[in-house]
């Protein structure tokens, strides 16, 4: 098994983070600094930043209805982190993130290959949200959101155009939106562009996985059918 895949399948971190460790020369195999092209054998001893890595064959897939106030990080040094909140007995990590204030569906796993697949922007996986704003919704606002919005992207320090997307009004202050992008705080920035402020944001679907009736703050295992369609 390729080294980055071996590390991620252990549940230590995602495949992308494993690649960063390898580049930083923080991965050793049998005591020697390892390269990206290394393929792990059964007898090899793998260490990442001083931690021994043990490959596991049993993968864990969890969906959580995240409450507001929980931070989507695996770092134990950050208060109210999602790992402490779930308190699962084995090592898992979140797939992507939701803003601290945002509620709803987020996946957690120890399968780094799934993280890699779902996080690739070019795969255009749909994510669906229900959004409540602070003033009456107009037809023009819905149309403008649907057609794409120029929003400031702090990572690129430039403006980015959001892709056209389905937007459906639910009531006077609430709408449903489906995105295939993952720009930072995208929905909040899209609304702000038209002088609307998001007062409540909930993710209800990732690809084929729906939040359904799962209570806020509760989690469950994915079903076999849900897992089969993840990649």
TrEMBL record:
EC number from the UniProt entry: 5.4.99.-
InterPro entries: PsdUridine_s_RsuA/RluB/E/F_cat, PsdUridine_synth_cat_dom_sf, PsdUridine_synth_RsuA/RluA, PsdUridine_synth_RsuA/RluB/E/F, PsdUridine_synth_RsuA/RluB_CS, RsuA_PseudoU_synthase, S4_RNA-bd, S4_RNA-bd_sf
Keyword field contains RNA-binding: yes
Broad enzyme group: isomerase
UniProt keyword terms in alphabetical order: Isomerase, RNA-binding
Tagged with keyword Thylakoid: no
Occurrences of domain RNA-binding S4 (ranges): 1-62
Coiled-coil features, chain-numbered ranges: none
Matches recorded under NCBIfam families: pseudouridine synthase (TIGR00093)
UniProt family annotation: Belongs to the pseudouridine synthase RsuA family.
Name of the featured protein: Pseudouridine synthase
């Amino acid at each position: 098994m390729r080294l980055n895949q071996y590390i991620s399948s252990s549940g230590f971190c995602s495949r992308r983070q494993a690649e960063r460790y390898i580049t930083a020369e923080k991965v050793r195999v049998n005591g020697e600094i390892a390269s990206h092209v290394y393929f792990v054998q059964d007898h090899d001893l793998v260490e990442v930043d001083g931690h021994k890595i043990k490959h596991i064959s049993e993968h864990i897939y969890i969906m959580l209805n995240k409450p507001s106030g929980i931070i989507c990080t695996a770092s134990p040094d950050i208060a109210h982190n999602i790992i402490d909140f779930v308190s699962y007995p084995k090592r898992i990590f979140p797939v992507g993130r939701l803003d601290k204030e945002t509620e709803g569906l987020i996946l957690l796993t120890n399968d780094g290959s799934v993280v890699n697949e779902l996080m690739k922007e070019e795969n255009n996986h749909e994510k669906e949200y229900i959004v409540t704003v602070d003033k009456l919704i107009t037809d023009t606002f819905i149309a403008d959101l649907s057609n794409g919005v120029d929003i400031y992207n702090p990572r690129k320090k430039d403006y980015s155009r959001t892709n056209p997307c389905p937007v459906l009004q639910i009531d006077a202050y609430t709408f449903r939106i489906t995105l295939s992008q993952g720009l930072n705080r995208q929905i909040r920035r899209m609304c702000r562009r038209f002088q609307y402020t998001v007062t409540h944001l909930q993710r209800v679907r990732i690809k084929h996985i729906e939040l359904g009736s799962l209570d806020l703050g509760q989690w469950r295992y994915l079903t076999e059918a849900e897992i089969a369609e993840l990649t």
